């Protein structure tokens, strides 16, 4: 298992805490050479674009590595994704990618270019992972006993009732909106079960991003929508109104508070897996375990 930093800079103490947790799972995690790197001029990046891309490329193509965990989100994956050698990544065979937030860009690219199931799960050096047993155990179960976590349960209620089937996709809303029109983004969510969340975006910004997806016809034909966490997005009652207003007209099941993304005890959600969303029961049930 390798830990890479494709986006923002990593705090060394948190990285060591995350590596210790992974070692406790009888794993041998290896930190990429530039995982603690910083950009000389742009302090919000974990090193140069070339170094971050090289770390991910090297880790994925290493035959001794079965899974690549991202150390954190932040910003930067969009800057390095174009530097990856997709033929080499494909030749390396299917592996496991784990990360969330800014890593949404990589989830989309790995889906469109490699056709792989990926895990929208906690960052290895994130406080939400290193300090929360629920997040740790759900990721561990997804990796080692995926048949035990085939059904994921919401903490909330249905904004729009009903059932739907499709292939899961999604991630952080702001990244989905920003990725529109790029070579690595899916052309739309048609036939899929869309899983979305975000952090630190006020209600009007969430409205703006959802409206952008609607105006771009990206949500045409979506089968159902599961909503995750919205930490720092203002009063939830206001945000809920926005979500219902923008998504309710699609005429598909919509379930809130699924507990993934930027929240304590975040669930690990598989992307690229066929599943059924039952809005009334508040469940997302995978046809098969996320990993085989």
Structural summary, described in words:
With 292 residues, the chain is an alpha/beta fold. The chain is 32% helix and 19% strand. The protein has helices at 12-23, 49-61, 77-80, 86-91, 104-114, 127-130, 133-144, 173-179, 203-215, 236-247, and strands spanning 2-4, 30-31, 67-70, 96-99, 118-120, 151-153, 158-160, 163-172, 192-197, 224-227, 254-255, 269-271, 274-278, 283-286. Strands 6-14-13-8-9-10-11-7 form an 8-stranded mixed β-sheet. Helix 5 links the parallel strand 4 (96-99) and strand 5 (118-120). Helix 8 (173-179) packs parallel to helix 9 (203-215) and helix 9 (203-215) runs parallel beside helix 10 (236-247).
Strand order of the largest sheet: 6-14-13-8-9-10-11-7
**Percent of sequence in beta strands:** 15-25%
Dominant shape = globular
Mean pLDDT: 97
- Largest sheet report: 8 strands, mixed
- Unreliable stretches: none
Q: What structural category do the secondary elements indicate?
A: alpha/beta
Distance between the termini: 17 Å
Radius of gyration: 18 Å
Query: Percent helix among the residues?
Result: 25-40%
Number of helices: 10
Strands, total number: 14
Structure characteristics:
alpha/beta; 14 strands
Write the layout of secondary structure elements.
Elements: E1 2-4, H1 12-23, E2 30-31, H2 49-61, E3 67-70, H3 77-80, H4 86-91, E4 96-99, H5 104-114, E5 118-120, H6 127-130, H7 133-144, E6 151-153, E7 158-160, E8 163-172, H8 173-179, E9 192-197, H9 203-215, E10 224-227, H10 236-247, E11 254-255, E12 269-271, E13 274-278, E14 283-286
Parallel strand pairs: 1-2, 1-3, 3-4, 4-5, 8-9, 9-10, 10-11
Antiparallel strand pairs: 5-12, 6-14, 7-11, 8-13, 13-14
Helix pairs in contact: 8-9, 9-10
